[in-house]
Amino acid sequence: MQWEEGMCIISGSYRSGEGKPPRTTVELWCRARSGHSVTLLVNGLRPYVVIALPGKPRPASEANSALDYLRSRDWAVNVSPIGDKWTQDGIKPHWKVEVPQPWMITSGPNIRKILKESWEVSSADILFERRLLLDYDLGPHISACGEVLWAGERAPIEVRDDDTGDRTVAAGRIAEAGGSGLYPTDMVVSCTLEDLAKVDPFRTPFVSFSFDLETSIQSNRILCAAAVIDRGGERSEHTFQGDEGDIMEGLTSLVHSEDPDIITGYNIDNFDLPRMQERADLIAGRSGVDKEALYGWGRVPMLQSESKQRKFPSRQQNRVWRIPGRIPLDAWWQARQTLRPQRESLRYVSKLLWPDDEEMHKLDIDASQMDREWAERPDEVLEYCVRDTVLPLDILGRLQSVARKEALASVSLTTVETASAGTTSQWIDSLVIRLADRSDVAVPTTISGPRRRDQIAGGYVHEVDAGISPWVVVLDFKSMYPSIMIANNICSTTLVRDDTTDDSYSVSPTTQTRYLSKENRVGLVPHLLEQLMQSRDRHKAALAEARAAGDEAEAFLQDQLQYAVKILMNSFYGVFASSFYRFTHPDLGASITEWARHNIRGIIAQVEEDGHEVVYSDTDSIFVRSPVDKQAPSKRPEDEDESLSEWEGAKRDALQFGERLADRFTREGAELEFETALSAFFSHGAKKRYVGRVVWPREEMLIRGYEVRRTDSFALLTRTMTDMFEMILDGEEWAAVEMTKSVIDDVKARRTDVADLVISRSCKG
Hints:
The protein is an alpha+beta fold. Strand 2 and strand 3 form a beta hairpin. The mean pLDDT is about 90.
């Protein structure tokens, strides 16, 4: 039976098959737009590498004898010309070498190593399942049409019949289509490359599984467990107690039956997942129970032929967990990255997010005495365990973590798993490699060897004088580094590597590094960044339209997409200034910061020539003293008298001044935005440490660099420094000194609540 629907790709893998030529099947684990899960088996893609003659460009005919020898090798399934491509040595003819299986490129015969002895090799370190998205320009949101091989109870009614629901028949069909057996998804569908198409982003109805373990302090044994399934906002709670093996089998059975996309919990990366792994190994080794029944959470058939790496959760080298077909998303880590809380316990974070809602707080169980608590009041412990599974889902929802991962996947055109657990270089790879292939640029392998090199000089930081400055406007360079890369065509594909000079070159201010002009060749990176900037503008326009129309769902989607584009654009400098990225060079990062320092120094010089004081500058921000009457109040008067009108007039003059400066100094590669107006600015004279009272576009206290901003600060310090800064900005310096001295005296005399002195620190491992 044929079936077609839109879906979102959670993650992917591949299976090697037999035959002449050998078949490699891509497995895509997806969640359909209508809510059911799908394993998509895609056939037709061949693993390959790309080769060219080494050194300077030579005619293709010079490769004939070497190509004949290459075609005689048993692993060279097919060798075909693919035209000319750009390389660092010039434009050369290239050939595609198709190989039996992806793993043979870097292991087994190690085809890449063999080819490098005689050829220049490119496109040789790209994961096979990612190759599918790259070669066919697909993103996470796709439309797929194919034959239904298996349809479970949650599959659409129209595809459920005796044929697709028969497990034995379905397993045979799946094997014939290149799969490994009966996958624990609602549907298994077989299709070809031509059956896939990219579609516009939509909000996917992911299914989430949150779990929590309560374990013995004395023996590490699992005492009880709880899990919550969230299916499109509808939740079901599940509890497990009794024999430890039964608890683990119950959790695993729930994972298989509910088939979640997201596995979450609080601190599961460091506690729950490792504890499950440890106890599964112990119980399976001691009692002979199949480990698959205890901990087989992978989205693959639990068959003897399946590898351990696909059946069980495993921690990767970068400390990220991987569960094939699913996404581990630790609510602790999401809270830590987004909120940067002073304490990272679930109790603290839940009170931080919902201070007045007792239903959202942890229950009063002493986890350090869990053996006693479990023995004396098991019902309360079980309730406590359930609460600890509900809260992580609420935290992810409040932080919009899943929606942000999906939006980033949509913008970077990766699977949601890559957006969630991948690196910035993998996100950027997804876009750059596509553009390189379309632009006939050879794709080099990731640079191996030492990751460290001489540090690149950073952005310009202007000296700051100690004291208070009234009415300061803050100007910010919009996407400064991306703008510089676009304006000066900075890219490894435009870098001039010889001694030639030309008036058309873009030349960096200090090191005189040269780049081809856009008329000669548009660099991959500038071209891509321009596309992203235009994309963000479109999403922001669509966001405004959706808000005006009252379409909250569309507004939410467009807001997530524009934010994801921003994150991706801001990642480019770090990747291209690295020592390991495939499209990089040591001169690129240095050139970018050179131009940044040159631009900001030039603007500062012009502002000061006009008689305006630059009180501070840091990388992409300039703080300028506004020409406001020095007698104007810097604090909003509480009473509606003459001083209020003076304050409002000063604010109006500062806003107009900020807008004029932004308009005057905006140009290609240096677009200035009027970001903030401060009625008072204070620093004690140290770089990157300042305080300001913001009056536009909102009213708040701005604190940068001082200890109050540190996550390992403590309550008394944060409170005292905030009060002190308020007084200083009000012009009450001596009152601030006396207040601070009185707090110190109270600490010395032990009149301070000890809880206000607790310092929280994160521990690694």
